[in-house]
Amino acid sequence: MREAEAIRAKVRAKYAAIARAAEKGCCEPKAVGCCADGSLDMIGDAYRDVEGRVPEADLGLGCGVPTRHAGLRPGEVVLDLGCGAGNDCFIARHEVGSGGRVIGVDATPEMIARARANARKLGFDNVEFRLGEIENLPVADASVDCVISNCVLNLVPDKPRAFAEIARVLKPGGRMCVSDIAATGPLPEPLRAAVELYVGCIAGALPLDDYLRLLEAVGLEEIEIVERRPIPLPDSVLAPRLDASELAAFRASGAELLSVTLRARRPRSECRKGRGV
Fold first, then answer.
1. Residue 68 is part of which domain span?
2. Which H or E run includes 23?
3. Cα 240 to Cα 247: distance, rounded to the nearest angstrom
4. pTM to 2 decimals?
């Protein structure tokens, strides 16, 4: 429990610093990015031509573009997990239109403040930002058509609980589309034990097969990987955490870090009891 709280505190502190840098106008995506030390660029210019993108809200923190594969439709309710300054929420709003609704949830108060300020500036009254943790979402049961997330679920210590919450808030037949970090095999213990690498999206990455099994375990179906690409791990990232023999063993294992975008659906007909919020 203490380890999980330490991870959450470290994540909040890092993303609070990013939000404060953005407020001062000195937050460059290449300087912050998803990885804490900026040595890995997981998103590049993937958002450059995405309709609905708001430059002030795009802090370069993603590893994919989940809205590209979510199939969002006018009038839908969309929930963005780990919304940051609101970039994916504003893109989703562009897709669902003024008749839809978008909810962003983030555990960092400074990010929520940035997102709300961006929404006010844009005059969007159907985009709402809520402070909360993904493992305990401040969202009602069966109230969301689509859950999106971008390079965030790998940061969550209790992933089974997070996936169960996604299933809870989806309407019957509702879907999720998330971009996340996974691995092709187990990561070395020194990497998984390094709390600072949770902030950088590495240590929390599950093996992809385990990730898919967790989605199945919470009752989601039609699970598919719609985009997948390797993320190189340079020695400059690994060497400070692994000794020479551990680094050599990791290289020999062939394990890779992946950016994956996945889709899944809550069954259309089911018996499920949950809670309202």
1. 2-265
2. helix 2-23
3. 10
4. 0.87
